[in-house]
TrEMBL record:
GO molecular function, one term: nucleotidyltransferase activity
Pfam families, per database record: CTP_transf_like (PF01467)
Reaction catalysis annotation: phosphocholine + CTP + H(+) = CDP-choline + diphosphate
Bias-annotated ranges (Low complexity): 304-324, 336-347
Function of the protein: Catalyzes the key rate-limiting step in the CDP-choline pathway for phosphatidylcholine biosynthesis.
Keywords on record: Coiled coil, Lipid biosynthesis, Lipid metabolism, Nucleotidyltransferase, Phospholipid biosynthesis, Phospholipid metabolism, Transferase
Matches recorded under InterPro entries: CCT, Cyt_trans-like, Pcy1-like, Rossmann-like_a/b/a_fold
Name of this protein: choline-phosphate cytidylyltransferase
Family: Belongs to the cytidylyltransferase family.
EC number: 2.7.7.15
Amino acid sequence: MVGCQQCTMEEDPRENYTPKFWRKTLTAPAPFADESSCQCQAPHERLTIAQARLGTPVDRPVRVYADGIFDLFHSGHARALMQAKTLFPNSYLLVGVCSDDLTHKFKGFTVMNEAERYEALRHCRYVDEVIRDAPWTLTPEFLEKHKIDFVAHDDIPYSSAGSDDVYKHIKEAGMFVPTQRTEGISTSDIITRIVRDYDVYARRNLQRGYTAKELNVSFINEKKYRFQNQVDKMKEKVKNVEERSKEFVNRVEEKSHDLIQKWEEKSREFIGNFLELFGPDGAWKQMFQERSSRMLQALSPKQSPVSSPTRSRSPSRSPSPTFSWLPIKTSPPSSPKAASASISSMSEGDEDEK
């Protein structure tokens, strides 16, 4: 059990004169009003808006009340409660949530049941206390019981339960403080989206394992939805294959460009080396000429002398005729005419010796 914030006031040791009310809702869910251990019997003097905006009185917070259905709790609900919480410098926010019976009677069927809606409000950071089974129309007895100073709601007249505006008597009593609605988000808008895209969400839940019976889907629609899911899967696979093929083609193009560039560089290098080796002034030509000259020198023999040297004779002996035993080596004729000329000269020499 927890006590009301008004009876658990403590001074903040970090500030000299500013009282601080320790909010347990920052670390735990907001308590329910009927589970609170404190039924405060202290006299409650209602404040004016001017007094509340000045932050007085210092001995207690300003008790602000906001009510609603809060079905499919969303950011619009949270923003409205944030405005109600920050209307005054020091405020305590009580939130009333209507029961299922009352809501179905005056407004219509809800998606979430009352227990789920209560819990959603308990875990909102701006809420200090939750009042279950709140009345549809606020009575003086209810306001006095919960010691409510002001009621926060948007200023649009709320016609219901045979009244043009259920907050009319609150406004006349000077206890009404308006808040602003959040455009573009509401419970009705969310339900409209679901109804509009019903097939999409039915297929989604079938794919996630819900049965056709749980979704209240006929046999034919179930088969249709499952077939559509298979078609979507095939489309997704085809899309993935197309994306992968595009990536593969891009990679091949990049690699082909690199290969062509490298091939061009290598081909230019090869051609340059070939020309340097086998070109008109290349190293191969010089080497060939050197080797061919060496081969010619090796193949052509050196010319020997025509007459052999005479022997030196001693003065005591008579001279003896000299004989040349070694054949005379002549160089081979360079042409047929030279060969015939040499033969004729040799014959003439023989005739002279005779």
